[in-house]
Design a protein that fits this description.
Layout (H helix, E strand, L loop, with lengths): L5 E4 L2 E4 L3 E9 L3 E5 L5 E13 L5 E5 L2 E6 L4 E6 L18 E5 L2 E6 L2 E6 L3 E5 L2 E4 L3 E6 L4 E3 L2 E4 L3 E6 L5 E2 L14 E4 L3 E6 L4 E3 L2 E4 L4 E6 L11 H4 L12 H7 L8 H6 L6 E2 L28 E3 L2 E13 L4 E3 L15 E13 L4 E3 L2 E13 L4 E3 L1 E4 L3 E6 L4 E3 L9 E4 L3 E6 L5 E5 L2 E12 L9 E5 L3 E11 L12 E9 L2 E7 L4 E7 L3 E8 L6 E7 L2 E8 L3 E3 H5 L23
Parallel strand pairs: 2-4, 3-5, 4-6, 5-7, 5-8, 6-9, 7-10, 8-11, 9-12, 10-13, 11-14, 12-15, 13-16, 14-17, 15-18, 16-19, 17-20, 18-21, 19-22, 20-23, 21-25, 22-26, 23-26, 24-43, 25-27, 26-28, 27-29, 28-30, 29-31, 30-32, 30-33, 31-34, 32-35, 33-36, 34-37, 35-38, 36-38, 37-39, 38-40, 41-47
Antiparallel strand pairs: 1-2, 40-44, 41-44, 42-43, 42-45, 45-46
Length: 592
Amino acid sequence: TDGSTITQNDSVYTITHAGEYTVTGLLSEGQIVVNADDNAEITIVLNGTSITCSNGSPIYIKNADNVKIKSEENTYNCIVDARAEADDNSDNSSSENGNAAIYAACDLKFVGKGALSVTGNYNNGIQSKDDISIKNVTIKVNAVNNAIKGNDEVAIESGEIIAISRKGDGIKTSNSSLSTKGKQKGNVIISGGNIDIYAACDGIDAAYGVDVSGDGNLNIYTDTYSDYSEAVAADNSGSSANSVGTPPDMNNAQNNGNMGNPPDMNNSSSNPGMKGNFGGGNRAANGMPGNNSSGNSSKKSYSTKGIKAESEINISGAAINISSTDDGIHANSDSGVLETGEDGKGIISISGGTITISTGDDGIHADKELNITDGYINVLTSYEGLEAITINISGGQSFIYAADDGINACTGDGSSTPLINITGGYIDVTTGSGDTDAIDSNGSYTQSGGMVLVKGGSSSGQVSGSIDVDGNITITGGTCIALGGICETPVNSVNAYVFSSVSFNAGSYSVKDSSGNEIISFTLNNSYSNGWICTSALTTNTEYTLYCDGSSLTNWTQSAGTMGASNASGFGSNPGGFNGGGREGNMNGGKN
């Protein structure tokens, strides 16, 4: 160079003009600095290089329009921030020489088919004051605080990414304002790639929203589930206190619980509300944590959720695996939390993908509304499985295990009446023993389609059990099988039958009419006392028999409405003055 585009001051190389610059070789103590015009577009090609700096960011982009960092194909590149850990390694920490191993004051793009290793011992690993995008490249980031932080946006299109945060969040945004063109900032957008996140705090923490799509893989491990977590000070986490439980004994659960198989969806979907094979049984009831009426026993002063957003989360694809001590997926609706002055929406929408969650708190928690239209959801362990004020399920397959309530429509700010509304899909819910409800609504439960199999841990009835509501259970279509304690039975619904004196032990069950036609089948791996079946498949003036492993348990002739022991024993809507959901029905400890 003639000095017109690059200046050198000892081991600091400064790029001052637009263009493409190739870096190769070893810089054991130095910096690459970009300080160009506001409209400069710059590409830095890493072609087998190692850069270490102990007094600033090894790559420090002070000014430009956007900078692209390309890892050349078939090369390995290493960037190490060797500074001592910042006294305040929170998001508020600042440094005149950069706050991360790769720090940019403009949009930052990572591309190429090579490999890039980034170590952030001072604070963050990769940070941009604006947007970060990643495509194709293989990146491993190991940082003391946030692994990848784009103040305005982080977008991953493809590539192999490992993001390790020893004391902070894996992927983070912090600015929820609107751009000059009205675009919402603060999003984490994942449309592809294979991503592993290990975080002491949140796996993904978005100032506004999270969008996951495509056919990639997203694996998230937080807090004690991450092998890299270190002790976190409350003032370094950027999160306020929230309820976090001790993670369940996964070895115990997996060794003792029969995970079962998904139902025959071809069978059930081809004849919805009629003959369905309810599989899965009690996937993890043995060895699982029991009910804890006081909530989670261990609390931390910072958030350790899998995916968290201050407003909304949309999932339409990808294979997602989350192991977290706090909520697996969580959307907030706090008042005035957004920089626009608006409240968070508190909405989670799932329309595709495969989601597997193991958590010590809620599996999926939306402060206001949870919508499931498609996809496969398997909550292996949780305190409460699905929780929101309004829960709408119209498709997909959902398998839920919870130590407390499986699906909970709880009270919120008073602006909405709690409701669980099922119009389609397959839902299999199991809860642990004790004061637990497979489905618990502080409002009502309605169903017009789909197939629901719930297995409540209690056999006491009235207080807790299969489906517990403050309002009514109304089923106008589909099939619902509710086993465990009988809290309420359907009203203004299709035909139902209550089995108050039948013990449902492990085995294969079927309901057949007098001609031997099977209309319902399901499988259990554990025992439940009492239960009821409500389905449009039960026709009036028809005789039915309930079988277990081929042996007859009971038979009846169906007349209109709800039949069985509910009429004789006083079961019905809100029996005995007991109301559903009030014991654990509020959104406790989940806002952060």
